[in-house]
Amino acid sequence: MGWEVIFWNHTPFNLEKLGYKEIKLEGRANAKTDLLKRAKIEAELNYFSRKFKDPVYQTYKFANSHQNLIAKIKTGIVQGLVATHKDEKGLQRLRIKMKSSERKGAYYQKCKEILQEEKPDLVFCTNQRPVNAIAPLTVAQDLKIPTSTFIFSWDNLPKATMVVETDYYFVWSEYMKAELLKYYPQIKEPQVHITGTPQFEPHYNGDLRQSREDFFKEYGLDYTKKYICFSGDDITTSPDDPAYLNDLAYAIKLLNAKGHNLEIIFRRCPVDFSNRYDGVLEKHREIITSIAPIWKKTGDNWNSVLPKKEDLKLQINTILHSELVVNLGSSMVFDFAIFKKPCLYLNYEVKAKTKASWSHKKVYDFVHFRSMPTGKEVFWLNSKEEIPEKLEKALKNPMQKIEKALEWYKKINTFPADKASERIWRKLEIILDQNTLKTENR
Q: What gap in Å lies between CA 18 and CA 365, rounded to an integer?
């Protein structure tokens, strides 16, 4: 489309090896900015709870660290900021303070040097969450370069994860646009562009699909079996995942004793490198095949793990050659719906809980599940005893839930879903044309 794209790369990954032009974005946000960010998120969640008279926003908070004196001091500073910035005006002051804090640092100056040298027409931030994105975007705005950001995930806006401020915002759908304007009234409607998300685009690429025979041979699967996919969550979202996988394995054994011929493909959460599943995988090794996502880890944090291109193919063919998916509240419901495969949501407490304070109910109470039109988009597993019966129903009539699941998918994403990237570039062209016209008219 005539664009020259340079990745201003703040990840530890080498994008040049993938054939992309990149400039390493070196440096980090000021310590003060990070404290302001923490305060902003907590103050916003408190404000959302009051404004919408809904306690659910308190469940998005993370416990403060009290490991040492420095951590306690930082927490005290954050709580002081939260107490003095309670309303919309206070939140706006925190946003201004974050930018002001970044303008005083060497990182800001380095970003300014790069932008003055490169002179881009536009800066596009692919994720609204990172505190390290504030400085480069603030520099761009100070230099009158248009900025935009993409809302990273379907559950992000209620969580108060809007860390950056840009001139334009790209969202998945009309539903997400309404959310954005609801939570951030300082953003005006013309600033918001509906594009869909590139997240699901590879599913529509037929070149990435393998034959059943080739996929089974590559991963040592039994061609005579039918496979159920268990899609794992991260340890924070679902600490009891190993117990759920264990319950599913016993259900599969019960069904096989009745004449079924089933096994399980276990696909763990890509950022979960823990050994918490090892016992269950060993106990049921005759019916569970673990096929790990092809992601590369370069650090201890979740954002230092990124997918390799090969994982697109792996995920697609795991879905294509599974009968259905079992998980707790994952967006994999949409990935499987694209392939006309049903989803079964785990919806019960296990007896031996890993974490006493955790509950599956907390997950389904999150705001993004309110986008579910009817509740009939998935099969609900309300106890471990229900699993065999619900699995049989889903296997016998897989299309029973698909129409509703696809309606949900079309509500949270824009169609045609395989054109999201193209729509993003078209919107960027519109933004660039509008800003060029404004400049010429000055």
A: 40
